[in-house]
Design goal:
About 40% of the residues lie in helices and about 10% in strands. The chain is α/β, with parallel strands linked by helices. It folds into two domains: about 160 residues, HAD superfamily/HAD-like (Rossmann fold, 3-Layer(aba) Sandwich); about 70 residues. The chain has a six-stranded parallel β-sheet, sandwiched between helices. Strand 4, helix 5 and strand 5 form a beta-alpha-beta unit. Helix 1 crosses helix 3 and helix 6 crosses helix 7. The longest helix has 20 residues.
C-alpha cells in the first residue's frame, strides 16, 4: 500500500485530455505572433514543461529565447486556449472524480497539481473541466526546463505547510509519463504512473514507478486512498 499526506497530480494525460486543444492553441499563437507554421513539426509535449516547449517553438520561429518573446507567445497561447477547449472533444479521465472525492473525504490529505503547464494554462484547463477548486496548491512549469526541478520546488514549498514539515516520502506524485516518475524519484517521493497518456503500464514500471495503474479507476482496488467512499464500478 502507498500512503502519503500530499498528493500532487500531473494534468494532461493524468487528470484530463484536451482533445488536442493545447497544441492547436500553441500553433495558432506562434503563427499569429511570429508568422511561423509549426502544425506539421514534431514537438514532444508529453511530460515536458511549458518553459521547454516554448523554447522549442521560439527556436523553430528563429527568434531569441528571451523573456519578452516567451511572455508574448504564452499570452497569445492562453488567449487561444479557452476557445480551443470549447470546441474540443476533451474529457476528465476515468476515476478522477471518485479519487479526488476520496482524498477530500479522508480529511488528512493535501491535494495539489505538479504540472508542466504554467499557472494560467493550468487554471484555464482545470476550470474548463470544473476541477480547479479541487486543488489546494500548485507547482507549475513556466519557469523550469527540467521537470525534476518542479519536484524540488514542491519539496521546498512543503517544508512548512500548515505549520508542519512534510517529508519527501510523505509526498505522492501521480503522472502518465516516465518524466513524472523521474520527477518523483528525484526527491524520494512516491511515484504512481497511470497509463492514460500514451505510455503503457510496463513502460511506467520500467521507468521506476512504485505503482503503475491502467487508469485512476484502479486506485481504490489498491487501497491507496483512505477516504470513506468507494466507487463500486471501479472495484
Amino acid at each position: 500500500m502507498i500512503s502519503a499526506r500530499v498528493y500532487l497530480f500531473d494534468i494532461d494525460g493524468t487528470l484530463l485530455q484536451t482533445g488536442g486543444a493545447g497544441w492547436r492553441a500553441l500553433t495558432t499563437a506562434i503563427a499569429a505572433e511570429f508568422g511561423v507554421d509549426v502544425t506539421r513539426v514534431a514537438v514532444e509535449l508529453r511530460g515536458r514543461t511549458d518553459y521547454a516547449i516554448v523554447g522549442d517553438l521560439l527556436r523553430l520561429a528563429q527568434v531569441e529565447e528571451h523573456s519578452r518573446n516567451r511572455d508574448r507567445l504564452l499570452a497569445a497561447y492562453h488567449e487561444c486556449l479557452a476557445g480551443e477547449l470549447k470546441g474540443a472533444p476533451g474529457r476528465v479521465l476515468p476515476g478522477v472524480w471518485s479519487l479526488l472525492q476520496d482524498l477530500e473525504e479522508s480529511g488528512d490529505s493535501l491535494v495539489g497539481v505538479l504540472t508542466g503547464n504554467g499557472p494560467r494554462g493550468a487554471e484555464i484547463k482545470l476550470r474548463h473541466f470544473d476541477l480547479w477548486h479541487r486543488f489546494e496548491l500548485g507547482v507549475f512549469g513556466d519557469q523550469h526546463q527540467d521537470r525534476t526541478d518542479l519536484a524540488r520546488t514542491a519539496a521546498r514549498m512543503l517544508q512548512d505547510h500548515r505549520g508542519g514539515t512534510v517529508e519527501c516520502e510523505q509526498i505522492c506524485i501521480i503522472g502518465d509519463t516516465p518524466a513524472d516518475v523521474a520527477c518523483a524519484r528525484a526527491i524520494g517521493a512516491q511515484a504512481i504512473g497511470v497509463a492514460t497518456g500514451g505510455y503503457t503500464v510496463a513502460e511506467l514500471q520500467a521507468a521506476g514507478a512504485h505503482v503503475a495503474l491502467g487508469s485512476l479507476e484502479q486506485w481504490p482496488r489498491l487501497g491507496l486512498a483512505r477516504g470513506k467512499r468507494r466507487d463500486p464500478e471501479a472495484v
